[in-house]
Amino acid sequence: MKDSKSDPPPPYSAEASVSRTRTSLGQIRSMADALLRSRISASSSGADTKTSSSAASSVPTYDSRSGTQPRCTIASRRISDDFSTRLSMARSPPMTPSATSSTSSTREWARPVTDRKLRLDELKKEIESASQPAKRSNDGLFKAAYSTDILFLIDTTSSMAPYIDAAKEQVKSIMDDIQTTFLKEAEIRMAVVGYKDHQDDPNIQFLDFTTSVDKVHAFINKLKAKGGGTDHPEDVMGGLQQVVNASWKNQTRCVFHIGDAPPHGRLFNTINTRDNWDQHGSEPHRLTYKPLLKKMIMLNLNYALLRITSYTDLMAWEFMKEYADANAICKLHKLNANFSKEYLSASSRSTSRMRGSSAKSGLSFEESELGTSYSSLRHLVVQSVASSASRTAVRMTDSISKTGGKMDSTALASHPTIAEEDEGPKKEAASEELAMEDVPPQWDTAGWLDETLNVEGFSPDVVMHGARTLSDMMLHDDHIELSTMELGVRRRSKPFSQGALRVAAYARTTASTNHFVVKSFKKDGRHLAHLAEDMRCQALCKAFALEFNNLVGPEHSIDFIITTCLRGQSDNGTLQYMSLEPYIKGDYVKYNNNSGYINNDIPNDETNKAAQAFSHFTFERSWGQILVCDLQGVKGVLTDPAIHTANKDRFKLADTNLNREGFKFFFSTHVCNEICQQLELISNAEMVVANSFKFRELWPAVDNTVYCSNKLCGKIVPTAGARKSDEFPRCHWCELCWPQLESSKVRWMCLAPGPDHEFSVSRFYYESQGLAMPRKCPEHREAEETVSKPAAVGGALWARMNNASAKQKNISGRHW
Asked: Which residues form the VWFA domain (predicted)?
């Protein structure tokens, strides 16, 4: 890979301007005829004042290199009072970037700067209007979500003496650890169910929920490890029945089952030992496992089976399948004899249901190895409770958004599902399931991207990052600058993925070979203001990432994709809102969420470490005002983050912004790693409890680092490694976008008065800036044209870049 930033782009053989003597008389006549026909067609349809044909502006182009005859394209375009653009969704030919003709998305002249300013002002007013209703309050959410009911279901037969002793010895430390984890705000109640076998007396022993750890300790101390009858299985069903009958109250509910023997019935017992009730359901109480587990699921009980021996493997497998059918996060221990079955079944059942690939489920069933390591009981319980509480918070946040800002406990009790990426109840989404296409993308297959969209929208205004850039963006949304876009997009008509409200389809833009995804709403969804806020959120996260990368080095560097929000008008006149973002190839990993979840499955993964430290860094760098979380992506390329803000007026449209309650969720589970230590981060959970913070104040100024100047890419690029061209001064390009500046060039006829002549123009460049293609050669381009020669919207860009280059050794986190 070339390292020189001054290397010229790949050679372009044609000259920048060609005399009309290079064009044959027949070719000129053909172009004139095509232009005349298009003007006649335009005048014949002039009666419709609301629709203007672009035939007059669709000047035929000619490729002097190939000698191809010119072709005139006519694009139907209608501008309404609110600047909405007609959305063309006709079937289209394959997308093959051509040098012989303009695309239907190409306009003759760019809109004037004042018009672009009006569009930005319009968006600002729409955001202000959408933010007028009072946002639902998150106050008390942390306490409500993390207040927990914990029930220990313990086999108290003779073989269980060591585990009963361990529970007795560790119950106080378990309570203390959970209280500390939950910042001493949450109510923790405990209950105990002890079970033996039918011939034992008592068969079931029960302590209902209490906040007194002394009562729990005294009750466990009275449990005697004896009995069990003359056969191996025990009365597990009787124990589960008592679990269901306990007085559950708090929103987070956890059952910890500690036992070394299966229930009665050959369904659970393959060993060749005696079973006095070998037919499931033949026990004296006639209880069976499926109705009991369904009741537990209806009660939102998270089930943790602490495995001691392999005798309970079949029980774990059968119980897990019931939870999987309820869309719970399910996990068997790898030592379970049925572990391979879990993966085989995943091919015929929902992978997310069987493997818990989504961290956003309301319920969980998890088998963990307790073995003979009694000391691990405390760790397993605390970790499981924290994970369960995080899922409860997601579920409660979703319920609040549907009940007008009130925490509805009734709704919670009957609503075990949660919000997906774009939110909405899963039971509603189920009726809106669309057919998905499960095939690899065929980017270069002719005709595969079979829909053409001509749209307008907004993208982050990517510029050089300087000493004040992040501080300004943290200060106010107006400093997260946006620019207008006009794009032609080719997408696949069949989506490949869907959430509750949106579908995703493969796409490319008409002048680029980059790969994208278009996300559109299944039906009337959020307006442009919501998409624009999401876009600004990602732009702020990207600015944080740039400073973070400068501090931690390349091994732990991360980046956020750029999102562009689009608006078009369908054939029936309905406004449609979409987002366009780069396609990321690979397996997505969830690193954390906005309510305390942390990915503990890959503790040594470097990207996972970086993600956890990055969230902490954003809180420290912003002096406790902003915390970025809900991080997921492919390796270090992240997408769809959430932002918690101390200021309730920032990012008001995002339901994922839990404000100061979100800070509590993060610090309740965050454990500083070596990257946090490298960054010298000071803030911690104890400060949250005391509501008194200390922060690192001085940060080294960022070396000049830039974003790729393609506003649809925006990749973070070190200045030294960025590609530059004399033709496009003050622009920087990543390795993917760089060669397209030349490969997309076409030859066009200049429309300026005087002798006919041609000039070359890079279609990719103007698309990357969201601008219309120029129709005049550089020598004739008028001063009032929208884009200046350096190809930046407005003269402020150069001033901002000059400010960015100013040397500053340190930045104060306190004074931003």
From this structure: 149-229
Contacting residues for 232 by C-beta, under 8 A, at least 6 apart: 261, 262, 269, 271, 273, 274, 275, 311
Range(s) of the chain covered by CATH 3.20.200.10: 588-701
What distance in Å separates the CA atoms of residue 116 and residue 484, rounded to the nearest whole number?
Answer: 6
- Strand pairing of 705-707 and 716-718? antiparallel
Tell me the Cα Rg of the chain: 32
Report how far residue 663's alpha carbon sits from residue 618's, in angstroms, rounded to the nearest whole number: 11
pLDDT at 435: 85
Number of Cβ within 10 Å of residue 367's Cβ equals: 27
Asked if 303 and 322 count as a contact pair (C-beta separation under 8 A), the reply is no
- pLDDT higher at 205 or 124: 205
The answer to whether 768 and 793 have CB atoms below 8 angstroms apart is: no
pLDDT band with cut points at 50, 70 and 90 for residue 339? confident
Is the separation of the CB atoms in 160 and 182 below 8 Å? no
Name the DSSP letter for residue 25. H
Map residue 473 onto helix, strand or coil: helix
Residue linked to tokens 């095939």: 439
pLDDT above 70: residue 396: yes
What one-letter code names the amino acid at 642?
Answer: A
* Spatial separation of the C-alpha atoms in residues 454 and 485, rounded to whole Å: 11
pLDDT of 563 over the 70 cut = yes
Beta strand segments in 461-591, E: 482-491, 497-498, 502-509, 516-521, 559-560, 564-569, 575-582, 589-590
Residue pLDDT, tens place only, 74-114: 333 333 333 333 344 443 444 443 333 333 333 333 455 56
For the 588-701 domain, the top CATH level (class) is alpha beta
- Residue 727, phi then psi, degrees to nearest 5: -70, -30
Beta-strand runs (E) in 118-231: 148-155, 188-195, 204-210
Parts of the chain belonging to CATH 3.40.50.410: 141-402
Nearest to 154 by CA among 234, 240, 245, 258: 258
The angle at the Cα of 185, spanning 181 to 187, to the nearest 5 degrees, equals 95
- 3-class secondary structure for 409-454? HHHHHCCCCCCCCCCCCHHHHHCCCCCCCCCCCCCCCCCCCCEEEE
Q: What is the DSSP string of 255-294?
A: EEEEESSPBSSTTT--SSS--TT-STT-STT---HHHHHH
Alpha helices in 503-566 (DSSP H): 528-552
CATH no., domain 141-402 = 3.40.50.410
Please tell me the distance from the alpha carbon of residue 421 to that of residue 207, in angstroms, as a whole number: 40
Inform me whether the pLDDT recorded for 805 exceeds 70. Answer: no
Among 460, 501, 502, residue whose Cα is nearest residue 483: 460
**pLDDT exceeds cutoff 60 at 256:** yes
208 pLDDT tier (thresholds 50, 70, 90) = very high
**Burial zone of 117 (CB within 10 Å; 0-12 exposed, 13-18 middle, 19+ buried):** middle
**Whether 88 contacts 452, CB under 8 Å:** yes
Residues 131/653, Cβ–Cβ less than 8 Å: yes
Q: Which residue type, as a one-letter code, is found at position 45?
A: S
Residues 39 and 60: their CA atoms lie apart, in Å, by 12
pLDDT for the residue numbered 432: 59
Q: Residue 652 and residue 649: Cα distance in Å, rounded?
A: 6
3-state SS assignment for residue 354: helix
DSSP state of 711: T
